[in-house]
Amino acid sequence: MNETVASLFEQSQFHMADITRKAPSFRRAIATGRIFVGSVGFARIKDRTLPKGDALKLAEIAGVQGAKLAWQQIPMCHPLLLDHVAVLPELDKESQSIIVYASVATTAKTGVEMEAMAAVNAALLTIYDLTKPVNPALTITQARLVMKEGGKRGVWIHPDGVPPALQSLIPKEGSLPLEGRTAAVITLSDRAYAGSYEDYSGPALASRLEQAGCQVSSRSILPDDADLLEKAIKALVGTVHLIMTTGGTGVAPRDVTPQVISRIGGIAVPGLGEVLRSSAAAHVPTSWLSRSTAIILEKTLIIALPGSLGGVNDGMKALSPLLPHALDLIDNKKPAHTHDHSHEYGHNIMEESK
After folding, report:
1. Are 140 and 132 spatial neighbours (Cβ–Cβ below 8 Å)?
2. pTM above 0.70?
3. Structural domain of residue 308, as residue ranges?
């Protein structure tokens, strides 16, 4: 869409959020809500003797359907292909209520909070519909998003906290998959080296590594000069676990990073370059022009990332589940940081409680 058309649509009073250039990532949301049904309604629900059928089973089905149809009920909600929906109604005898939990997950450019809330609301309304013949004095309350994860903001948890039944589904805070590892970051840019351009990608790359627990022991900015880069890399090999460069991976005459890494030798790891290109290509088609590459030399993993801030962010998102495993293997250790997706897809209480 050209700038004129884009500015025209920005003036429209109602429009969906533009996620055209966002990268797909894993998304998950958990929501909950409650319906007070009174003593008569609670007993009939528990004994599964309501006139219209089993409220708990139908609530699960309705919740799944509600999540899938959220976009049809909410005008500005993006239609999403959901990878998983799980709904769990739980009897609370003390308050004579039914608590509904819903977990929704997918890989997409936007979150699934509305789908999780739609699942809870559909389940609660179904319980309402099936219970009202025996007790019309029903109250739906406490519907809220408990947690969402994915995208740039990572994990968000409701200020009111997480219900005990959902604790096992919440990502553990303080996970540092690169703890105990050391790294060096090298930025390749003629302009940044000359001081005419501020280096954003190098600090962003270092920050990402530090957030994962890695100690960044060296940061430098070099011009796009093959000999200087080779000298810098060779000086660092063996002193750190990881060397990451940013810049010089394109097809311009001064983009020399891949040639330097290739002539240094070592063991090629072509899959890392492939994952960097393929992960970004869906929203940045020019990613296919990148020559990002990786090698292992003397137990040091060397990876060349693109020079843009977006390229670094997308690249680290794609590499984050692979780096701890790769570094463990290079050290001939049993990988300690395998990524278990079972919690992401609502396993645990959502499945085991059935």
Report:
1. no
2. no
3. 182-330
- Report how many domains make up the chain: 2
pLDDT tens by residue, 327-345: 999 998 876 544 443 333 3
28 and 168 together in one domain: yes
Q: Are residues 263 and 122 in the same domain?
A: no
User: Has 225 been annotated as catalytic?
Assistant: no
The span from the first CA to the last CA of the chain, in angstroms, equals 48
Residue 1 lies in a domain: no
Q: Which of 129, 190, 225, 328 is catalytic?
A: 129
Residue-wise pLDDT tens digits, 263-304: 999 999 999 999 999 988 877 889 999 999 999 999 999 999
CB count, 10 Å around CB of 101? Answer: 27
Say yes or no: 187 and 323 in one domain.
yes
